[in-house]
Amino acid sequence: MTGPSSLRLSAARCCAALIVFALCACGIGGARAGCLDVKDPAFVRLRPLIDQDPKKALTMVNGLLARLPANAASSEPRRLAALYALQAGAYGTLSFDNFSRASALKGLALLHDPTDPLRLVLLSNYAYSFNEPAGINKALTLVKGARAAQKSGSRSDLCLEIVQGTLNQLRARPDLAIGELTRAYLQSNTPSLAEPRMEAASTLALVLERMDDFDQALALIRQVIRWDTSQGSTADIGIDVYLQGKILTTMGHFREAIASFKRARDISLAQGDHQGVAYADLRICQSRIGLGQFVPARRDCERAAQVLAQGRATETVKEARALLARIDLAEGRATRALSGLDRVLDHGGKDLLARDVAPTYLARAQANASLHHYRNAYRDLQHYVHLYAAQNRSYRVRLQEALEVRFHARQEIRRNAVLQRKLQVAAQHAARQSQQLRWIEIASIAGTVAMALLSYILFTATRHRRQLLRLASEDPLTGAPNRGHTAQLAMSALESALAHHWPLTVALIDFDHFKDINDRCGHAAGDHVLKEFARLARGALRATDVLGRWGGEEFLLVLPDTTLDTALSSIERLRLLALGISIPASDRPQALSRVTFSAGLATTAEGAATLDEIVARADAALYEAKNAGRNLVRIDRESSHNPTLGPGQPC
Fold first, then answer.
1. Is the same domain home to 553 and 468?
2. Is residue 66 included in any domain, yes or no?
3. Phi/psi of residue 548, each to 5°?
4. Looking at beta carbons, which pairs linking 311-316 to residues 24 or more positions away fall under 8 Å?
5. The dihedral sign for the CA sequence 68, 72, 75, 79
6. Can you tell me the mean pLDDT for 123-152?
7. Under 8 Å CB-to-CB from 360, ≥6 apart: which residues?
8. Are residues 430 and 499 located together in one domain of the fold?
9. Are 213 and 400 in contact (CB under 8 A)?
10. Are residues 458 and 426 in the same domain?
C-alpha cells in the first residue's frame, strides 16, 4: 500500500508473507515512505502515485524507461537507477516479487556509493522481495553489510535497522526484532527523524502484538495512526487501523475493533483490494462472535471465506471455517459445527496458525459434548489442555525474552548518552545524577511491567482452569451438575447432615412418558423439556439445594436440613413448574399436551448412612410411583399416612 520508494511491504505482499510465515492477518511493514531521504526529481514526483495507483505508476515508469537512450546506463545512471527503484516498488506493491527483485538488482548495479539513500532504497526493495527463509537470510546479510557503512545513529542507519528488525521477525526471531526496532524507535526521538520513528513504531507494534504485549502495541499503533492522518497517508492508515482492530479484538474490546476493521475495509474497497476486504470481513465476523451477534457474523464470515478460498492462504480459510463452526455451535447446530470442525482439524491442526489450534480443539470438545459423544469430547479436551499448557510455557519464555531484549536496548542507548555527556565537562556531575535517576526509573518500570505480566499470566491460567473444571462438572445440555459432580455435592451434604444430626432428604425425579415426547415431538422437544425444567428449578429452589442430572430424563434433588413435609412442598412446586412447560409444536399427530414427572423420596431419618443407601431407597419409592400410575410422589417407607402428590393419572 506504500510505494517501493519506501521500505514498507504492500498489503498484498504482507498477505503473501502470512502464507509462508504466519505472522499476521494482513501484513508486516518495512520502512515507511520518506524514511530514507531520496531527492531525485523523478523519484520524488512518482513515488506518491505508487501509493495511490501502483498499476498506473508502473505504466508511467515503464514508459519513461522505454524513452531513455540506449546508453542511459553510462550517460544517466542515477536517473535510470531512480526509475528502477520506482519500478521495483510498483512490482512489489502488486506482489510481483520476482520482477521487483530483478528491477532492484538492475538499479543496484548502477550505484556504488554505500551511503547513497537511493541505493539503500533499492537494497530494501531487494530485501523485501524474498518470502522464503534462504532468501531472507541472504537479504539480512546484505543489510547488515550496508549498515556497517553508515554513521551510527544516522537516518540511513536507523532505516536499515528497521529493515533488519523486520527481516528478523519474518525469520521467526522476535527477540532480535524487538531489540532492533526498540533501538530505532528510541534513537529517532527528534523532529527531524519523525518518519523513521513512525516506521519503527508501526513495525514494533506488530511484533509486540505477536508477543501478546497488547497495551504497548496499541499505544504505538495509535501514535502511528495520528501521524498518518496528519500526513494524509490513506493507504498506510488502512494497514494501521487493521492492526489496531486485531489488538482490540484480542483485548476483548469488540465494538472498537469492529469500527477499526470497517475503516480498513472501506479503504481496501476504495482501492479495489478484494483480499483486503475479505480479511477485514473475517475480523469483523470474529468480533461480532465476541458480542454474540451471530446472524451478521455468519454473513461476514461466509463472504470472507468465499474470497479467501480463491487464494492459497489455507490457514486463513480454515480460520473462517472454524469461526462459522463456532456460530453453528452457539446457535444449537452441534452436528453441523462438529462436521465443520472435523474439516478444520483434518491435519491435526498442523495447517492452522499456532494460536488457533488449541481453541479449535476446545470448540470441537464442546460440540462433541453437546451431541453426547463424551469419549471424543474428553479426547479433544486432553488435546486442548496439552496445547494450552505448551503455549503458556512458550508464552512465558517469549515474554521474558522480550523484556530482557527491550531492557538491554534501553540500557545500550542510555550508556551511549552517558558517554556523550561525559564530553561536556561543565555538566558532567549533573548528567551523572540524571542518569542514575533514569536507571532507577527504568528498573521501576521494568519491575512494574514484569509484575503486571506475571499477574496477567496467573489470571489467564486461573480463568482457563475454571473453564476446564466447568466442562468436567457440568451437564452440557441443561447446565446442571452432571452425575459425577452431583454425587460429590450429595456426599458432602450427607456427611454434614450426619455430623450435625440434621435431616436430609433426597428425591429421584423421572419424567413420565419421556420416550413418547421424543418419539412424537422429536428429540429437540425432549431436550427443550429437560433444559426448561432445569432452568425453572434453579429459580424455585434454595441456594443450598442441589439439583443435578442423574441420567437420561432423571434428576437427583438433594435437600439439606429438610424434613419430608418440607421436601414434599418443594416437589409440589417443581411439579407445578413442570406442568407449565410447553412442548414445542410438532407436525406429528397426538402431540403431548403437558409435562409431568414421578418422584421417590428418602430421608436420613430412616437410618441411611451412605449416599448409595439413601439413593437406592429413593429409587425404590420412585419405582412405586411409576407402578401406581405416574405423576405421583412416593416416600420410601410403608405407612398408612404415606403422602402422594398429583392426580394419579398418566400424561
1. no
2. yes
3. -125, 155
4. 311/15, 311/275, 312/19, 313/15, 313/18, 313/19, 314/19, 314/351, 315/18, 315/19, 315/22, 315/351, 315/352, 315/353, 315/356, 316/18, 316/25, 316/279, 316/282
5. positive
6. 91
7. 322, 341, 344, 345, 349, 352
8. no
9. no
10. yes
* Banded model confidence at residue 46, pLDDT cuts 50, 70, 90: confident
What's the rounded Cα separation, in Å, for the pair 177 and 199? 14
Quote the CA–CA distance of 180 and 170 in Å, as a whole number: 14
Place of cell 419405582: 623
Q: Residue written as cell 412442598?
A: 569
In a domain, 264, yes or no: yes
Residue in this structure with the C-alpha cell 471455517, named with its chain if needed: 321
For residues 616 and 536, membership in a common domain is answered with yes
- 3-state secondary structure at position 421: helix
Sheet holding 633-635, edge to edge: 546-551, 554-560, 504-511, 597-603, 633-635
What is the mean pLDDT of the segment spanning 27-44? 66
Residue 347 cell numbers, joined: 491435519
For residues 138 and 257, state if they share a domain. no
List alpha helices for 474-563, DSSP H: 483-500, 514-521, 523-540
* pLDDT value of residue 143: 94
Residues pairing with 555 in the sheet: 509, 549
How many domains does the chain contain in total? 4
Residue 482 has a CB neighbour count (10 Å cut-off) of 21
Q: Show the domain range for 283.
A: 213-312
Query: From the CA atom positions of the chain, what is the Rg in Å?
Result: 34
